[in-house]
Design goal:
With 202 residues, the chain is an alpha+beta fold. The protein is 22% helix and 50% strand. The chain has a ten-stranded antiparallel barrel. It is globular, with a radius of gyration of 32 Å.
Length: 202
C-alpha cells in the first residue's frame, strides 16, 4: 500500500472515532429527554392541585381585626367569622362577631342547585342573594338609604373580608356618553379585615 492509501485509511478510522464520539452524547440526550417526558407524564396527574369545594373546604373559625375607614380616619375592632356545617348539608352557620363584646350576627348560608349562587338568610325574614366565583362570595344590597357591596375571599388558611358603603342621597351624575347617563355613588365607609383561620380548623 502506498503512502496515500495508508493516510486515507488512517484518516477514515479517525473520522469513525470522532463520529461515534459525537453521536453518543446525542443518543444519550435523546434517551434522557424521553425518560423525562415519560416521568413527567406519570407525575402530572398526582401534581394537579385539588379543586376546592365551597363551602365545605373552607369551614372553620376565622379571627382578626376589622378596620373601619371613614372621612374621620381609621378605627379597628376585633372580629370573628364562623362558617360551620349543620345537620343539613345545604345549610351552613354563617356568624360574625364584632368588638370586644362579641356582638353577634347569626345568619345561615344556603346552597342552591346553581353552584355559583347562594342565599344568605339573616333569620329575620331577610334573605339576600349571594354570587360565588373562585372562592369568593359577592353581594350588593340597599339598606336604610345606603348601598353596600360585600366581598369575602376565602383561602386555605385565611379570608379577606370587605364591605363598602355609599349613601344613595350622595349620588351624583358623572355625565353622559353615547346616550347613557352615568351616576356615581361615592364610598363613605370601607370595612376590611384579614382574618386568619384557627389552627383547629385547618
Amino acid at each position: 500500500m502506498d503512502d496515500s492509501g495508508f493516510l486515507f485509511n488512517t484518516y477514515f478510522r479517525s473520522m469513525k472515532k470522532w463520529i461515534a464520539f459525537l453521536i453518543l452524547p446525542l443518543f444519550l440526550a435523546c434517551k434522557e429527554a424521553k425518560e423525562f417526558e415519560s416521568t413527567t407524564a406519570e407525575e402530572t396527574p398526582a401534581d394537579v392541585k385539588k379543586a376546592f369545594d365551597f363551602p365545605n373546604d373552607y369551614l372553620g373559625v376565622y379571627k382578626g381585626d376589622l378596620e373601619i375607614t371613614t372621612s374621620n380616619g381609621v378605627n379597628s375592632i376585633p372580629m370573628e367569622f364562623h362558617l360551620l356545617s349543620t345537620a343539613d348539608s345545604t345549610r351552613f352557620d354563617y356568624k360574625i362577631f364584632y368588638g370586644e363584646e362579641r356582638s353577634e350576627r347569626a345568619y345561615t348560608l344556603i346552597s342552591t342547585p346553581n353552584p355559583n349562587v347562594f342565599e344568605l338568610d339573616e333569620n329575620n325574614g331577610i334573605i339576600l342573594p349571594v354570587a360565588y366565583a373562585d372562592g369568593t362570595l359577592f353581594s350588593t344590597y340597599q339598606v336604610a338609604g345606603n348601598l353596600l357591596n360585600s366581598t369575602e375571599k376565602f383561602y386555605p388558611d385565611h379570608m379577606d373580608f370587605m364591605i363598602t358603603m355609599s349613601s344613595l342621597q350622595d349620588s351624583t351624575t358623572a355625565g353622559k356618553a353615547e346616550g347613557y347617563k352615568v351616576d356615581t355613588y361615592p364610598i363613605s365607609v370601607i370595612q376590611q379585615a384579614y382574618l386568619k383561620k384557627n389552627k383547629d380548623s385547618l
